[in-house]
Amino acid sequence: MAAPSKATVVLKAVKKITVQFCPFESNVRSTREFLNLVGSEKARATNMNCEVIPVVKHDKSEPVVDITYVDGEKLLMKGANLTSSEMLSAFQSRCVAKDPQAKVGEKK
Amino acid sequence: MAATLCSKLLPKQGWLPLTQSVRHGSKAVTRHRKPLHIQKQKLLAVTQYIPPAREFPPGAYPSQTKHVQEDNDLTLLMKRELKKLFEDCKMIAVVQNSSSSAEDMMTLRHRLYKHNITVKFFPNKVVRSFLSDSIYCNMGLLFVGPTVMFVSKEPKVKEMLTTLRGSPQMTLLGACIDNTLLSAQGIVSYSKLPSMTVIQGEVVSGLSMLTSHTAYLLQRHPAHLSQLLQQYIKQQSSDGSAEAAPKAEEAT
């Protein structure tokens, strides 16, 4: 669960990521891991305009990851029963789908 | 079944023997699966492994005996340090850092050290096992993932919050201040509380307000009476002096 398929997380197509969780619940582990992966220095370096905002609450609510893309689309992930690798793969697949041309241009 | 040429059979060099045993059949290493010898086949069939029959699949029920690992010496040392920490320091805050480079960490530690707040790193397993034994068992849930502990003897919450606002990667999860577990919002409201002397003054003034009100009510009537009498005396004395003045003027 530590290393996803791609080592780097590319945030080029993302405008804002809000990670909301309640640390005293027991189902927040995957959400916290996702926050670590997305908020790492490497990921932030790919896009300096993207904001990663963690919100800590105490109301026994479910952990939720809210991602806003550059073109306005929103992705809402409820992390209570998901693993971090599942969340990351879903997130990355959408990123790649939105930004394939830029990626292909980079690789070439 | 290799054909071996003995030196005795060949008296002269280069003389091939009359009979040569030729290998037939396949060699030891073949590309296809060589059929086993019947004896070997029988032996394997007899000595085949039959696993014991399980009533339920292995993951269905939780294991009855929990495997308790004995603490090695390093763990014991860390636990002792943790115990001392919890006894000494009034404020222990748990912060998650999703990522911060070494420089960021150093600047943060420097800023916190000015306010006498130290940053401690402990392995999560050790901390959780220690907390589950002590009274702070509910704090154990916080220690998941990369967490850092900020400890200090004096609860300087405001300074800590201002310092943490400077580094965006740090997420404040919770704190244990004066043996009370606080959440993130609890910490913010704790920082907004006024100091102890102010609160004490407020409490004392609130309690004494009622008693002073009662005393005022009791003394109201005699106070009013004494005021009226004083006013009367003044008036009398002013009338007397007013009469005496024109009389003196008439006389002179």
UniProtKB/TrEMBL annotation, chain A:
Give the family from UniProt. Belongs to the mitochondrion-specific ribosomal protein mL53 family.
* Entry annotated with the keyword Nucleotide-binding: no
Q: What protein name is recorded for this chain? A: Large ribosomal subunit protein mL53
Q: Which PANTHER family match?
A: 39S RIBOSOMAL PROTEIN L53, MITOCHONDRIAL (PTHR33618), LARGE RIBOSOMAL SUBUNIT PROTEIN ML53 (PTHR33618:SF1)
Q: Name one GO cellular component term.
A: mitochondrial large ribosomal subunit
Which UniProt keywords are present, listed alphabetically? Mitochondrion, Ribonucleoprotein, Ribosomal protein, Transit peptide
Organism listed in the record: Haplochromis burtoni (Burton's mouthbrooder)
Taxonomic path: Eukaryota, Metazoa, Chordata, Craniata, Vertebrata
What InterPro entries does the entry give?
Answer: mtLSU_mL53, Ribosomal_mL53
Q: Does the entry feature the keyword Hydrolase, yes or no?
A: no
| Major localization class | mitochondrion
Localization recorded for this chain is: Mitochondrion
Provide the coiled-coil residue spans: none
From TrEMBL, chain B:
**What InterPro entries does the database record attribute to this sequence?**
Ribosomal_uL10 (IPR001790), Ribosomal_uL10-like_sf (IPR043141), Ribosomal_uL10_bac_type (IPR047865)
Superkingdom, natural source: Eukaryota
Show the Pfam families listed in the entry. Answer: Ribosomal_L10
What Gene Ontology cellular-component terms does the record carry?
ribonucleoprotein complex; ribosome
Protein keywords: Ribonucleoprotein, Ribosomal protein
- Describe the family membership recorded for this protein in Swiss-Prot or TrEMBL: Belongs to the universal ribosomal protein uL10 family.
Q: What is the protein named?
A: Large ribosomal subunit protein uL10m
